C-alpha cells in the first residue's frame, strides 16, 4: 500500500477519537425485525404468538450460528422467508411470569466445566455466533480498532467497559484452542492489561481491516496458525458472561455530520426508530448507511433493522460527498490501483463485473479483495467500484454452489426400469 497517497493523511480516516463515555441505552422498539434466513422456527412459534424478552424463536442448523430470540414483549405480526416481525404489546401476566422464569434460570458461564466446542454449543444456545470466536488457530488476535471511520465504540469497550472486556476474555480463553491471545490496539493508545499481551498497530484506515491487522502484528501476510476476532464479538461474549442471559442487544454508533453517539440497542430495532431516538433527521437526498461509512451498505427503507453484527447507522447528508454515478465509464486514472491495500486493480474488477465477465475476475484474484471501500472513495468518475466487486463475488459464489450441487446430483441410469425390462425380455 502506498503510505504517502494524499488521501491517507485525511483526518477523517484516523481511527482514534478519544471517546470514552459509557454507552447510552437505546430505545424500547415499537417493532423489531429479526433475521430468519436459514433458521428453523421453534415449535409453536407462529403468526400472532405472544412473546417475551429472551424467548427462543428460531434455531439455526449450524453449530456456529446463534439461536434467535425475541428482544421485547410483543406479538409476532408477520413471518416470511427472510424475517420475523414482532410488534410491541403491553405484557399480560403469563408473559411477565415467563420473562421472570428466564431471569431466574440465568447461566453462570464462568463456572461451567465445558470447554472448546462443547462451550460453543452452550454459547450458540444463548444467541452467540461463534465462528470467529472458536476458530482453530495457535495465535488469536483480537482486533481492538474501530472498524470504519466514524465508528467510535472501540475505545469505550477497551477503557470504560472493563468488566465486560475481562469477562469476555475469560470465556474466550475457554472457548478458543489458541495457545496465545493478543489484543491489537492503536499505537497511540496507552493501554495495559495485566492478563493479555497488547500489540500496537497503525491507527489510520484501512489498518483496521482484519488481514492488515494480522500483517501489522505478525509482519507476515496470511500466516499459518493465526486467527482474528473482532472486539465487537468479544463485547457480546462478555455481555452474555456477565448477565448469564441470551444475547438480545448490540452496540452501534449512530451518527451524522452533526451528531454521533454509541448506544446499546435491541437486536432487530428498525433504523427509523434509532434515528428518531438519536434526534437525527433524514432529509431528501441523504444516504442512509448500515455499517460503516466506507464498508457499510446503503438502505432504501427506514424499516430495515440492525443485527448482532451491525457496527453503526449513519446518515450521509446530501452534498457532503459527490454522488455515485453507476453509468459512468472508468477513465483509467489508476487512483484505485494506487490506493488498494490488496494490490489489485479495482478498475478492471469493476468493469468485468459491469459486463458480467465474472470468470475473468476469478482469474484476477477477486477473492483477495478486502472490501475496504477506498477504491470507490477515490474514484474520480464516481463509479460504485466496491458494489460492482461485491456483485461479482456474489455471482461467483452462486456459480460455485451450482457446480457443487451438479456434482452431487445422482447419475441418470441409461435405461428406465421399463426399458431395461423390455431389453432383458428381448
From TrEMBL:
Entry keywords, A to Z: Iron, Iron-sulfur, Metal-binding
GO cellular component, one term: membrane
4Fe-4S ferredoxin-type domain boundaries: 321-341
Entry GO MF terms: 4 iron, 4 sulfur cluster binding; electron transfer activity; metal ion binding
Classification via InterPro entries: 4Fe4S_Fe-S-bd, 4Fe4S_Fe_S_CS, Ion_transpt_RnfC/RsxC, Nuo51_FMN-bd_sf
Protein name, entry field: Electron transporter RnfC
Organism in which the protein naturally occurs: Desulfovibrio fairfieldensis
Lineage, broadest ranks: Bacteria, Pseudomonadati, Thermodesulfobacteriota, Desulfovibrionia, Desulfovibrionales
Amino acid at each position: 500500500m502506498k503510505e504517502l497517497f494524499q488521501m491517507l493523511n485525511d483526518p477523517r480516516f484516523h481511527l482514534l477519537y478519544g471517546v470514552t463515555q459509557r454507552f447510552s441505552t437505546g430505545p424500547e422498539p415499537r417493532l423489531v425485525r429479526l433475521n430468519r434466513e436459514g433458521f428453523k422456527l421453534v415449535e409453536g412459534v407462529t403468526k400472532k404468538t405472544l412473546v417475551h424478552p429472551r424467548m427462543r424463536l428460531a434455531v439455526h442448523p449450524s453449530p456456529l450460528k446463534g439461536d434467535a430470540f425475541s428482544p421485547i414483549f410483543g406479538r409476532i405480526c408477520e413471518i416470511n422467508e427472510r424475517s420475523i416481525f414482532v410488534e410491541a404489546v403491553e405484557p399480560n401476566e403469563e408473559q411477565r411470569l415467563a420473562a421472570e422464569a428466564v431471569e431466574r434460570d440465568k447461566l453462570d458461564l464462568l463456572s461451567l466445566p465445558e470447554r472448546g466446542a462443547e462451550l460453543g454449543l452452550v454459547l450458540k444456545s444463548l444467541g452467540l455466533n461463534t465462528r470467529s470466536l472458536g476458530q482453530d488457530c495457535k495465535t488469536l488476535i483480537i482486533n481492538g480498532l474501530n472498524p470504519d471511520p466514524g465508528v467510535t465504540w472501540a475505545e469505550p469497550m477497551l477503557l470504560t467497559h472493563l468488566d465486560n472486556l475481562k469477562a469476555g476474555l475469560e470465556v474466550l480463553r475457554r472457548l478458543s484452542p489458541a495457545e496465545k491471545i493478543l489484543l491489537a490496539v492503536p499505537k497511540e493508545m496507552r493501554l495495559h492489561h495485566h492478563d493479555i499481551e497488547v500489540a500496537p498497530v497503525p491507527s489510520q484506515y484501512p489498518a483496521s481491516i482484519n488481514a492488515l491487522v494480522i500483517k501489522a502484528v505478525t509482519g507476515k501476510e496470511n500466516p499459518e496458525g493465526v486467527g482474528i476476532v473482532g472486539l465487537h464479538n468479544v463485547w457480546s461474549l462478555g455481555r452474555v458472561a456477565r448477565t448469564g442471559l441470551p444475547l438480545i442487544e448490540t452496540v452501534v454508533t449512530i451518527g451524522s455530520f452533526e451528531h454521533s453517539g454509541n448506544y446499546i440497542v435491541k437486536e432487530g430495532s428498525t433504523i427509523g426508530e434509532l434515528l428518531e431516538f438519536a434526534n437525527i433527521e433524514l432529509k431528501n437526498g441523504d444516504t442512509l448507511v448500515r455499517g460503516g461509512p466506507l464498508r457499510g451498505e446503503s438502505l432504501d427503507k427506514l424499516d430495515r433493522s440492525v443485527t448482532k453484527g451491525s457496527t453503526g447507522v449513519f446518515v450521509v447528508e446530501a452534498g457532503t460527498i459527490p454522488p455515485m454515478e453507476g453509468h459512468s465509464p472508468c477513465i483509467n486514472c489508476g487512483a484505485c490501483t494506487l490506493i488498494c491495500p490488496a494490490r489489485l486493480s479495482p478498475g478492471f474488477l469493476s468493469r468485468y463485473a459491469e459486463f458480467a465477465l465474472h470468470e475473468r475476475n476469478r482469474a484476477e484474484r477477486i477473492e483477495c479483495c478486502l472490501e475496504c471501500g477506498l477504491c470507490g472513495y477515490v474514484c474520480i468518475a464516481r463509479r460504485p467500484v466496491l458494489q460492482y466487486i461485491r456483485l461479482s463475488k456474489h455471482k461467483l459464489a452462486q456459480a460455485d454452489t451450482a457446480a457443487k450441487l451438479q456434482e452431487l446430483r445422482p447419475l441418470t441410469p441409461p435405461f428406465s426400469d421399463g426399458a431395461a425390462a423390455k431389453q432383458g425380455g428381448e
